[in-house]
Design goal:
The chain is α+β, with helices and mostly antiparallel strands. 32% of the residues lie in helices and 26% in strands. Helix 1 packs parallel to helix 6 (184-197), helix 1 (17-29) packs across helix 13 (437-448) and helix 2 (79-100) crosses helix 15 (475-488). The chain binds flavin-adenine dinucleotide (FAD). This is Probable malate:quinone oxidoreductase. Its EC number is 1.1.5.4.
Length: 499
Amino acid sequence: MSGMQKKTDVILIGAGVMSATLGSLLKELAPEWEIKVFEKLANAGEESTNEWNNAGTGHAALCELNYTSEKADGSIDIRKAVNINEQFQLSRQFWSFLVSSNLIRNPQDFIKPIPHMSLVTGDENVSFLKKRFKALSDVPLFQGMEFSDDPEKLKEWIPLIMEGRTLNEPIAATKVDSGTDVNFGALTRMLFDHLKSKNVEIYYKHKIKDIKRTSDGSWEVKVQNLDNGKIEYHTAKFVFIGGGGGSLPLLQRTGIPESKHIGGFPVSGLFMVCKNPAVVAQHHAKVYGKAKIGAPPMSVPHLDTRYIGNQKALLFGPFAGFSPKFLKTGSNLDLICSVKPNNLCTMLAAGAKEMALTKYLIQQVMLSNEKRLEELREFIPNAKIEDWEIVVAGQRVQVIKDTEAGKGALQFGTEVVSAADGSVAALLGASPGASTAVNVMLKVLEKCFPQHMKEWEPKIKEMIPSYGVSLAENPELFQEIHASTTQTLGLGQKEPLHR
Ligand SMILES: Cc1cc2nc3c(=O)[nH]c(=O)nc-3n(C[C@H](O)[C@H](O)[C@H](O)COP(=O)(O)OP(=O)(O)OC[C@H]3O[C@@H](n4cnc5c(N)ncnc54)[C@H](O)[C@@H]3O)c2cc1C
């Protein structure tokens, strides 16, 4: 232990959307607690949370077909879609609370309304979409969803996608106007500005090198100041590891039993981006297709209108790929260094099971720009290569763990891993991601501070009125909350499509 220890109540590692959300919740629930944040980069929200590193979809299962599956009897299982939508409603409520309390301002700088659409071709897929539409239409959370298999209607909804299309097979789409585009980078920067104004100490260019338990049960973090190379030590009663892809190695440093037998598999991503105003003006939606057979769920192709800064752009992708780095700014040694004696068997089992995924990712890495253009043309038949540039997206580290299904199962969701006494917690995985940050951070609070939850509940309910309540089962409460969050977040105004 160091003699230069600096004590605090809470340490948040990483300045992404997850730490920003947890810090903002804690500042409301326990304003007297001292919080310190350590981030290795020069600014907040620069890794996966950055607006160019993710697709900015407010995931509410309005358009993502992988959240609804077809059961053996042909009916559609919508439980996951309902669950994800409920989670997004928690985020909307917390963001609205922050705006209406003047803790953050100008919601239009981080969230904009944009129709969310699903688009499929072929008899089987059209029949699936129709059944999905019928199943979701019965749930109030999906109100306003429209279905069409009429090419004339689709030309109105998605002219850029329909222009030049050969209609030799059935085509259909659903559309929900209440979808959103979220600039998670902008939101995160706003949240850190707010935290700074509440005396949270934020240290940029400070990298956490180690985490150790102290004799009184607190945690000591070893921090390197990247400007001068000096090492500092800070202790806290509670540490949240919100290092994104960098969380797994830090969790492993804690040595807690819960950190064992867990591995990570990095998946990189590329997007194609179009900034040509003449093309951008012809599309106004996030349009999600169906994943190709063998493709992992995070590589569902989609064509999105994005609002970044004051500019509107189109984003197509993601093209998945393999890189051994756990962060975009990580090291090529990340994957190999994460293999420990306790997770070797888990990792090997996953390697043997996931050959198809590995093959898929390698094929994706090898894709030429011409091949990527071919995939883009499945969405925009008349796409021109000169209108599109490639941007490298963030890294996603998928969790590998032993489950009832067997050793080394690859997980596509997020996992909160915490010590039995709740003194340290890490967030692993990246899906559905930033959209559900509020729900995930509420789970962190429930796991790590059970002794405070009763005292905190009234404040949580003031900030997030549907906390602990199913909105799907309380349509009136949903209507009320949806209307008020739509107003506070300025999501009521529709932007017309210019052609
Ligand atoms: C291609 C792609 C598309 C996506 N699309 C969507 C989408 O449409 N909608 C959605 O909701 N989500 C999406 N996501 C997921 C979403 O981006 C992530 O879930 C979210 O940004 C994760 O936030 P975070 O705070 O956990 O991690 P990050 O934003 O990665 O932040 C972690 C921070 O920790 C810092 N850090 C790491 N290690 C250390 C260390 N040792 N010391 C100090 N600092 C450290 C990093 O520098 C980084 O700033 C997407 C992700 C990807 C990659």
